[in-house]
Design brief:
InterPro entries: NAD(P)-bd_dom, NAD(P)-bd_dom_sf, NmrA-type_oxidoreductase. Keywords: Oxidoreductase. This is Quinone oxidoreductase 2. The chain contains 12 helices and 9 strands. It is α/β, with parallel strands linked by helices. It has 2 domains: 133 residues, Rossmann fold (3-Layer(aba) Sandwich); 108 residues, UDP-galactose 4-epimerase, domain 1 (Alpha-Beta Complex). The protein has a 7-stranded parallel sheet, with helices on both faces. Strands 7-9 form a two-stranded parallel ribbon. Helix 9 packs antiparallel against helix 10.
């Protein structure tokens, strides 16, 4: 069975390929990337694959049985880009598509959900067997801010006491690889999230515990948080989006307690304390 991974030069794609090759060896694993040179170090077959170059995609999928479609990072362009890939997969007679969607995309208040809902609908209409992995938030989305918090002495956000059932990219990548290697039922939808939900106050307390410093969590109105992110150097549109995602988290948009992820990977998801320790290295 040949398995191809889109976005292979990205963080999730690389991790998924690492799991696949560790479990099956390099034969039959194909890395698809806009710039193949960026994935040459993976030691597997590479092919050029640019979501925007629709006319080239079907040829790049020749001989592929299972396609892992990692959602595009270009917010606002995703629906069209994903549609290009789905159409190409159908033309290349790919047998199954795995798609990385968003936790509870069908009902989520997170702004990213709308594009995922459209891609899910396109998959269902394509006639190609599919599996949808609705991924929750990456723990790294927050632990990447730890060093900034240590510099400023405070961890800021707009998530209130909203519970975040996050998991690490490695956890999600392992699930992706396991599903790709399995002969699971068609049209399956997984809701994937971490075992233990936490708040930003919990995160700040864990940072404090591990560093021996007092790093409180300061909850800000979304506009103030976005302004702080702009001051830190983020583009205004991205800053507004991040603040909005925190607000969605405060409304329960990033919570799930079904533990489907740990059941898939056969182990507990990575604890927050371990993720914080890794970020502090």
């Amino acid at each position: 069975m040949n398995i191809a991974v889109t976005g292979a030069s990205g963080q999730l794609g690389r991790l998924a390929i690492d799991v696949l090759t560790a479990r099956t060896g390099p034969a039959g694993i194909v890395a698809l990337a806009r710039t193949p040179d960026k994935v040459a170090d993976l030691g597997i077959e590479t092919r050029a694959f640019d979501y925007e170059q629709a006319e080239t995609l079907a040829a790049a999928l020749k001989g592929v049985d299972t396609l892992i479609l990692i959602s595009s990072s270009e917010i606002g362009q995703r629906v069209r880009q994903h549609r290009n890939v789905i159409d190409a997969a159908k033309a290349a007679t790919v047998k199954r598509i795995l798609y990385t969607s968003l936790l509870h995309a069908d009902t989520s208040v997170v702004s990213l959900a709308a594009e995922h809902r459209e891609t899910e609908a396109d998959l269902k209409a394509s006639g190609v067997d599919f599996t949808i992995l609705r991924n929750g938030w990456y723990t790294e989305n927050y632990t990447s801010s730890i060093h900034s918090a240590l510099q400023s002495g405070v961890f800021i956000g707009s998530a209130g006491q909203g519970k975040l059932a996050s998991a690490t990219r490695k956890d999600f990548a392992e699930a992706l690889a396991i599903v790709a290697m399995s002969d699971g039922p068609a049209s399956k939808v997984y809701e994937l999230a971490g075992d233990d939900a936490w708040t930003l106050s919990d995160l700040a307390a864990e940072i404090s515990r591990q560093t021996g410093r007092t790093i409180p969590y300061r909850d800000l109105p979304a506009a103030d948080y976005a302004a702080a992110l702009v001051t830190a150097g983020l583009p205004e549109g991205l800053a507004d989006a991040i603040a909005g995602w925190d607000v969605a988290a405060s409304q329960g948009g990033l919570f799930d307690d079904g533990k489907q992820l740990s059941k898939l990977i056969g182990r507990p998801t990575t604890p927050l304390a371990q993720a914080v320790a890794h970020a502090l290295q």
